[in-house]
Amino acid sequence: MPDPSDMLIFWAVVIARFFVPLSIPKYPLPGIIASLVLDAVDGTIFQQFTDMSLADYQSYDKALDIYYLTITYLSTLRNWSNLFAFELGRFLFYYRLVGSALFGITNLRPLLFIFPNVFEYYFIFYEVVRLKWDPLLLTKEKLITTAALTWILVKIPQEYWIHIAEMGTIDWIMEEPANIIILIGWGAIIIGTIWLLLRDLPPPRPGFSFAADPIPSFLSDSTENARTRKERKRMKMINKLLYGRLVTRELAEKIVLISLLSIIFAEVLPGVRANNFQVAAGVSLLIVINTALSQLLIRRGRQWRSIIQEFVVMSIVNFSLVLLFDLVLPLLRGSIDLSDTLFFVLLLTLNVTLYDRYRRTHIWSYNNKK
Predict the structure, then answer these.
(1) Pick from 126, 123, 124, 104: which is nearest to 115 by CA?
(2) Integer CA distances (angstroms), 329 to 28, 130, 215, 258, 278, in order
(3) Per-residue confidence (pLDDT) for residue 358, from 0 to 100
(4) Residue 198 lies in a domain
């Protein structure tokens, strides 16, 4: 039987890794840095304060990595005013997600080298700029250069080190202390590159913008809360774009996003014997049902009163569907570990809820500039 103190520490870390990324949409830079630090130290916490085998945590760790990366992408829907920066960031995010799904299916570590996580550091660069400048100052050329240099100078060495050479930085330095000079030189090159990218920007504004701009209240509540006739007209247009038809580009993206996440989660779940087609088909059905429910409310002139209400209701719906899948899968020679699956469905439901809410904000933002 697991030691109660070990389980307390285990669930404290898991809960922290669930809630800390939720700060990213509101406080992008502090939120992602806190998530990165927590991801880096969780293994050390277990080693120092518990007798647990880290193998028991690996499935949660991998899923939570993808979870906070997805929250980071969804925050760009909510916050990013530079449309090209958003489109490039979306490509980098999905590129990594495809690589992670292929790795989960094949277990070929070089795939993580070929599909590096450039998006994370690209996001950090954008948010560093937003601290002191208007991100609209970032040109296409500067953004592409940033992504390319991040890919070449940061991620290729890092992904090679982790997934090809399979070496730890601490072990490398302990083996040869002089290697720290190489590490310092690498860091200096990265800092110099950032300076070159920022040096031609105009003088920075005073103060720091750690918090993202708030979402207009009527986007968070209902169309009736729109202050002006123009806002009400725009909200009706947005609702028509998002909910006028069942089959939309937004639905397609949600299916792609959640299917990839589910394939990744399924590969790290102990006890899952559903194949990738069954997983993708199951979550696609789940997303269609969720979208149809939201559309039904909109067509009846109603809307989710809050993001918490939407999350709670959708969680109940999705948990019920999982229980149904648990009954049906044995007939198809598949099975799931129910407790773990419910945990990962909770992550998926939160991602879908945030996508729906922030997609509305994204459409409003760009249509409001016209």
Answers:
(1) 104
(2) 40, 48, 41, 19, 9
(3) 87
(4) no
**What is the structure's pLDDT at 271?**
53
3-state secondary structure 129-161: HHHHCCHHHCCHHHHHHHHHHHHHHHHHHHHHH
First to last CA, the chain: 62
Say what the pLDDT of residue 223 is: 45
What is the rounded CA–CA span in Å between residue 51 and residue 112?
30
Q: What is the DSSP string of 169-210?
A: HHHHHHH-TTHHHHHHHHHHHHHHHHHHHHTTSPPPPSS---
Contact by Cβ (8 Å): 269, 59? yes
DSSP label of 24: T
Residue 71: how many other CB atoms lie within 10 Å:
22
* Residue linked to tokens 């550091």: 121
| Pair of tokens at residue 335 | 């099975």
Distance CA 22, CA 32 (A): 9
- The confidence score (pLDDT) of residue 240 equals 60
Q: How many Å separate Cα 360 from the centre of its chain?
A: 17
Residues in the chain: 370
* CA nearest to 360, candidates 319, 318, 309, 307: 307
Contacts of 97 (CB under 8 A, 6+ apart): 66, 69, 257, 260, 261, 264
Overall domain count for the chain: 1
At CB < 8 A and 24+ separation, what contacts does 228-232 make?
none
pLDDT in tens, 277-328: 666 666 677 777 777 776 666 555 555 666 777 788 888 888 887 788 777 7
Range of the domain at 345: 216-370
Dist CA 156 CA 251 (whole Å): 34
Q: Answer yes or no: is 164 within a domain.
A: no
Query: How much is the pLDDT for 32?
Result: 95
Whether residue 359 is contained in a domain is answered as yes
Report field, pTM of the whole predicted structure over 0.90: no
Q: Which residues of the chain carry a pLDDT beneath 50?
A: 222-224, 226
**Would the CA dihedral through 202, 206, 207, 211 be positive or negative?**
negative
